[in-house]
Amino acid sequence: MRTLGLAGAVTLVGVLGLSPLVAQARLPETAPATFSMAKDYRAVQLSALKAQRKLLLSFADSMPERLYRDKVTPVQRDFAQQVAHVAGAVGPISSMWIKGVPSKEVPGTAAILNSRAGLKQYINVQYDAAEQLLTSQSDADRDLRVQFFGGAFIPRWQVWDELNQHSIWTAGQIVANFRKNGMAPPAFLFF
User: Fold this and answer.
1) Residues 174, 79: contact at Cβ < 8 Å?
2) DSSP class of residue 127?
């Protein structure tokens, strides 16, 4: 026969002792009776889009234009390409997987990749379109499932989380461009 030991016994007594308290706990009167991921999570996803835009704009403002085309390694995208890649994924991916239509081609990239004004305008255009799409998307549409890049079927609301994850992952790589040039990256947004 196996025994619990002192740590196991203390844990068991603590859990059993809390059970009546947990059973008595009630949600506040203002809490919704049900939670709809499609409806109630939209504000969180909109906040994430706004944070992504703010971060990318801070990157564009903080890096000297003369270093926009600088790379950390030969095979990596340069600074401006990385920033444009994050912003540029938001439009095409949301357009394809939310609206079901391919996005329009980006007109020349020379102004986008070689100037602060061009890069910032591109970021804003992409995020304006994404935010408008997210806020206008119906709850029923957000619950529809799509086969995401030929893989798993996910609800359309989750596409926004996948975009956020891509943005975080790619933006994290951009920090190396600042470090390579002896610069601190822009301040973390939440402090």
Assistant:
1) yes
2) H
| Amino acid at residue number 16 | L
Please state the φ and ψ torsions of residue 147, each to the nearest 5 degrees. -85, 105
Residue 7 CA to residue 9 CA, distance in Å, equals 5
* pLDDT at residue number 167: 93
| Rounded Cα distance, 54 and 127, in Å | 10
Residues 6+ apart with CB under 8 A from 141: 98, 156
Strand partners of residue 153: 147
pTM of the model as a whole: 0.77
* pLDDT value for 126: 92
Q: Are 118 and 80 in contact (CB under 8 A)?
A: no
Helix (H) or strand (E) holding 130: helix 116-136
The one-letter amino acid at 14: G
Distances (CA, A) of 147 to 8, 36, 141, 152: 45, 21, 14, 6
pLDDT in tens, 45-87: 999 999 999 999 999 999 999 999 999 999 999 999 999 999 9
Residue ranges of E strands in 9-163: 145-147, 153-155
